[in-house]
Specification:
The protein is mainly alpha-helical. Helix content is 47%, strand content 7%. The chain is globular, with a radius of gyration of 19 Å.
Amino acid sequence: MPDPELTSLERTALYKSLGNPLRRRILDYLGRHGEANSTVLARELGESSGTTSYHLRKLAEQHLIEEIAEKSGGRERWWRALPFSHTTPDPATMAPEELAAAEGLARLKIEMDTGLYLRAHKEYAGPEGWSQVQRSGTWMTREELVDFVREYRALLDRYGHPREEAPEEARPVNLRFYAVPDAVGEWQGEPTGP
């Protein structure tokens, strides 16, 4: 897992790496299937093995994946994803290049999340189905919202499983959480939107 105290240059490199669409697809594949080599990824992702091999090395440099030494031999190297968690700092504290890389990654995430949101609505089969859609609104203080987000993360830890420890009937599930205060212009002296 990357060091939580990354420098601006290290975060910039991380955001560029995660913002690369092919690297995202490689990470998604490894997350779903557990392991792969460049040949498997080339076949599954429609790329050349040279291209996937290059991107695998770059992901390894970022400590996002690791080689499976006991399975690798000669020129054939097998890879698995590593646990990863990162919280992006306040954009106002970022250097210009870091901010540009973070914004590029955010655009890719928004595109992916929009697709997930549309799928969730399309595949919704009632409150007991695999696809769930929940929209809510309430009043909170900033401190209550921060506490809520901490508890949300704790719930994910409580109910979620690492791939290798998941029950047989478990499926990969994509969860997204957004909390945005109403844009009222200003609230108690603090700007909150247009």
